[in-house]
Write a structure and sequence with these properties.
346 residues; Rossmann fold; binds beta-D-galactofuranose; 13 helices; six-stranded parallel sheet; elongated; alpha/beta; six-stranded mixed sheet; 2 domains
């Protein structure tokens, strides 16, 4: 029996040795070798070689900002850039210096770069249908940021920004309170054709004409949302109507601050001889209210970065977004300006 077992053991041993000694196959290419080792490696080792989950694809967003004309615009740009950095968004940013042709060029460049989403703050409401159609044909969603465009709703995913008409209505009520329901007003309008200017004028005028018959808007002209132009136009108003002016409504704080300089140079007291109501609630407005030179500023929130990228992420994830996402806003008056200023973010 023992002899038989020994013979069997010897056979098994000889057979096994023959296998190991088979001539080495020609060295296989690295890939095949890897595949061979991969398939030959025992199961437990295979686990360590499973591919790591792919890095989440970086969101690529093209944003056409209209310019840098005001404190408000700078705050809006900083909010968008800061939020992109915080979220690791690849932001392609373009400043159009308040020229529509530059915005159109930037949008076409974003299409060529095949970005995931395009954001636009349109400098004016009209003239966008052709290029927005190109965006749609390229299959890229478009978000209107801050300002509206006069295009069919199917050309943009959503508008996020303020209710400018309501801002005009609030400004009118504040002005009527300051004047006791009676007096002559001059108006500094924003950029001609911009949704902010069109609707702030509309809202203000509607309230004054329907509720305050003893308040008259005797002059109204654009100051293009800038301090310099606001000062220049206010100088012209003072030259023609001087002491006949009891109130100034400015579509933004920058023009109001320019007008304050003109009123002082003319020899009148801004905030006292001429009551002033403006819009935005930027830091400069709080400083002017603390100095007694501005009476009220109606807030228009520029900190749109977080909402903008929330919308971009939802769209890319295939989630539904509201067609209009309003900003939350308040009204700030001279009496509380010193207490309010420390908590202001822009
Ligand atoms: C309002 C924004 C306006 C600001 C101005 O949403 O478009 O443009 O009120 C800015 O200060 O120039």
């Amino acid at each position: 029996m023992k002899k038989v077992f020994a013979m069997l053991l010897t056979g098994v041993m000889m057979f096994t040795m023959a296998g190991c000694s088979k001539p080495a196959a020609a060295p296989a290419p690295a890939a095949e070798a890897a595949a061979e080792t991969k398939t030959e490696a025992p199961a437990e080792e295979a686990k360590t070689e499973e591919a790591k989950p792919a890095e989440a694809k970086k969101l690529v967003v093209g944003y056409s900002q209209l310019g840098a004309e005001s404190e408000w615009r700078t705050a809006c740009t900083n909010s968008v850039k800061g939020e992109a950095e915080k979220r690791g968004v690849d932001l392609k940013f373009s400043d159009a210096q308040q020229k529509q042709e530059n915005q159109i060029k930037a949008i076409r460049s974003f299409i060529a770069q095949k970005v995931d989403v395009i954001g636009v703050s349109p400098v004016v409401e009209s003239g966008w249908e052709t290029v927005f159609k190109e965006v749609k044909d390229a299959g890229i969603p478009l978000v209107l940021v801050d300002r509206k465009a006069d295009v069919p709703e199917d050309l943009y995913a959503c508008f996020l920004g303020s209710d400018f008409k309501a801002e005009g209505e609030r400004a009118a009520e504040e002005m009527a309170t300051l004047l006791g329901g009676k007096g002559n007003i001059v108006e500094l309008q924003g950029t001609v054709g911009s949704s902010a200017a069109v609707e702030r004028l509309e809202g203000f005028k509607a309230v004054i004409e329907s509720k305050y018959p003893d308040i008259k808007i005797i002059k109204s002209q654009t100051g293009d949302f800038t301090r310099a132009k606001g000062k220049e136009v206010m100088e012209a108003f003072l030259k023609s109507d001087g002491k006949n002016i009891q109130g100034l409504y400015a579509h933004n704080d920058d023009m109001a601050i320019g007008a304050i300089q003109a009123i002082e140079e003319y020899g009148l007291k801004p905030g006292t001889d001429i009551k002033i109501v403006s819009v935005d609630a930027v830091k400069g407005a709080f400083e002017a209210m603390i100095a007694g030179k501005l009476n009220v500023t109606v807030e228009c929130n520029p900190l749109l970065g977080p909402q903008f990228f929330d919308v971009c992420e939802k769209i890319v994830a295939g989630e539904a977004v509201e067609k209009y996402i309003p900003s939350e806003e308040g009204i700030y008056r001279q009496e509380t300006a010193a207490a309010d200023l420390p908590s202001r973010q822009y």
